[in-house]
Amino acid sequence: MLTPPVFHILLALTAGERHGYGIMQDVATQTGGDLQLGPGTLYGCLKRMLAAGLVEESGERPDPELDDERRRYYRITDPGRRAVREEARRMAGAVEAARARRVLSGRKAHG
Amino acid sequence: MTPALNRMCQVYRLLLRAYPRTFRETYSEEMARVFRDRGLEIARVDGASGLALYAILTSLDWLRTVIQERTVSMSLNLSTLRWIFLACLILDTALVKRMSTPATSTAPLPFALLIMYGLLVLLVTTHRGAIGTESSMGLVSGAVMTVWTTCFSFLPANGTISVLAGSSTVAIIFACWGIAGYRAARRTGLAGSGWLAGCWGGLVCVLVKVTCSLVLSNLGISSQSPVIVLAVSGQYLLEGPVLGALFGALGGLAARISAPRAIVAP
Questions:
Q1: Which ipTM value was assigned to this complex?
Q2: Nearest chain B Cα distance for residue A49, angstroms
Q3: What is the pTM of this model?
Q4: I need a surface site. Which of A57, B67, B92, B157 has the fewest CB within 10 A?
């Protein structure tokens, strides 16, 4: 089971290599702004994910869209891709179960 | 970049020094850059009010992750911890024996030490409890307690500085035990694990304190007489785990209230 920050970071990296700020923006977009990763959370997760072999560094280079500073890029590994796929399947199963029990149907509980 | 954001970036760079050295060396440049980039975006979209909220949220993120990274870096591996405890046991027993005189009643102390260390070694060896956080919180609170009580002996007993420093030290120690309980409860999803974590933190704390007191007394640095050191050490050994359990339980309760469901740590 992956934690929400780890899951969303992996999901961001499935679209291609990203630097730290790129990952942060992608996660905010994926979650509609519900999950805003702070720098400490982002790099703490990346450190653990690097140690677990879920992601790897892919060198430093400037981002042409931002500035000419060199940034460290990260990419997802095969184990990382498997982990995010398994987690997505698990979540899809949970949503199906919720739908089957009509948790998701009807009016919203609050407003 | 606005002057406000510029100042925030400078402060954030200073705050980054609180992370463990290896983490800081690897990520602090990137973190500072990410902080600046996000700040620029917020300043452009939301203005000053957005930046103020950003500063608060980032401060909370900083505090939480500093504790987390410090905890990880202080999570001594089990083998190291076991050898440290055994070395302390031998050292403390030798020091107590050296300080004992016919006039001092120290009979319960070596036995208390032996039982306490035995319990610690058992906990470490059998991997029971959550070793990392609670040990680090115990070590931190023990270090704070030792520094304070050593300084206390050189300060006027009823001075304002003494009272303020004493109160804040006690608050830090109790907070450390509460944090240990809170983190254990958050990790396991069980409020009841808080008291055990706090008890462990209290145990480690008093063992650090007792060992330092005995060493300082034998070196002649402490202004307290050996009789008082021995008596106070025995008292600490009894009080530490009990108070640790109490504040750990409160931490566990706080975790339960703030996050009623089980949360799996990253």
A1: 0.86
A2: 9
A3: 0.55
A4: B157
